[in-house]
Description:
Chain A is of the alpha+beta class. Chain A has one helix at residues 2-37, and strands at residues 44-48, 53-55, 59-63, 70-71, 82-87, 90-95, 102-104, 107-108, 113-114, 120-123, 126-132.
Amino acid sequence: MYELLAQILKFLLIGLIYYFLYNFLKLMVLDLSEEKNTSGDTGYYLRSDDGREYPLRPVTTIGRAGDSDIVINDPYLSSKHAMIFKKGRRMVIQDLKSTNGTFLNGKRIKRAVALREKDVITMGGRNFTFLRREARGLESGSDL
Amino acid sequence: MDSKVEATYNRALSAMALVGFISFLLLSIYRKPLSPVPFYGAVTFLSIVFIGYFFTGWIFPSSDKFLFILAGFLVELGLIMLCRINIELFKRQVAFFALGVGFFILSSILTRYFVRLELNPVYLWGITTALLLLPLLFGVEKGGARNWLAFGGFTFQPSELAKITFVFYLAGVVKQNKINHFPRLAAEILAAVGLLVLSRDLGGAMLFYLTALAVIFAATSRLDVTAAGLFAAGIMGVLSYNLFDHVRVRIEAWLNPWQDVPGRGYQIAQSLFAIAEGGYFGTGLGLGRPDFIPAVATDFIFSAFTEEFGFLGAAAVILMYFLLVYRGIRIALRLKDSYPALIALGHTVMFGMQIFTIIGGVIKLIPVTGVTLPFMSYGGSSMVMSFTSLGILNGLWLQAREGETDGETA
């Protein structure tokens, strides 16, 4: 009696163990796809006062220097002024020790700060609005 | 947290609870007369898991649930085997598990808030060697290795705690990504390894040495040091084969266990018989013969598990350990500073090496050494310290997440 029960249940147990494992492998795939999304386009962009749009990459540097990702010719900007990068699911802005500073919603930032949609970034005399590209149907944006 | 991820965790937890209830009910009717102890044990175990899960989720919403649930499931599989092998050990192991979860939460909190306070590595080295020296002076011998301390009726393996302090020491020494005093570093590491060799814990010696190499390589990316280290390990291996009798016995039993099945090759031969008996789906819970395998509750629990859950069950366990290591590496990669990243890497490598050493040993891939299989083997020190390491990884993960949301309120 016991033997028969154990023989039948062993298939069920192995099935359940693999079901557990399947869930964790799925989590790993989710992890990896999250990592993969960090390369390429992030789905966010900056819009400046004059209406120009600058798409943001996983790491975007902003400054006067020609090798910055976003080159802005403004005498009040430092050559390497600020950097916006993706960390986890968030976009984070960091000031690169610029002379005149980077302001987020009017406050000067000292450390790396996570950005939220419609935040206004001020560098030199220019304002930039941090926006998400709407056309793309990203399903997970609730936590921003 | 993402609702999709949350739902996946919930599905995994329910699979875990089902496995527990089915196997422990089966084990309740396994012995005559019927005994409700396994079932009570299962209820206690699952309550601890759920309390631990919700408590960590409550104090740290972004806590790494992945590590905790995975480790909990491995503990559950270990408990099923222990309950089937020896009910007394099973009862004690449930208590050790509760203690381990307590330590997991404690070390998560401590690491989360205090990892920035870097202790001078010299002190950590002192603590490590003291821990390794204690059993040599006051220790008792168990299973050929003199690495146990006894206080009254309670025994403790200091080398398990030394693993943690050793990793902190290593991360502290090489965090500047360069080695300043190489001869001193080598001497310090070799002293710790030498103490383990003296207490005849060669598996432990190998773990410490290879973890040190891995951490140094990760910090400095220097192939020459790593190659020299591996070469030195080879020489030490040959030397210990010639110097120590018990090493020679182990290696001969590994090369040809069938030469002397009732004597030297007994352990490994019984382990291989058990694994072969299992086939793909196993014999079924309670229908194998784990009583033939020596040290089945501690070192050889994996072969008993393979016998009753088969090749498929064993492959699943190996994959789970792989996922554990993967997650540890992921935590290390997420950390920006080199000191916490090296701590995360060190703990992960220690886990990975230990798992490889013992599973490789029981399936005769490498010579068998007496280290425990983390989370599955019977043993209080191993269980508590494995959960402490896991808590440290979790604390580091929390810190990595903290960095990502910096200034959110500003």
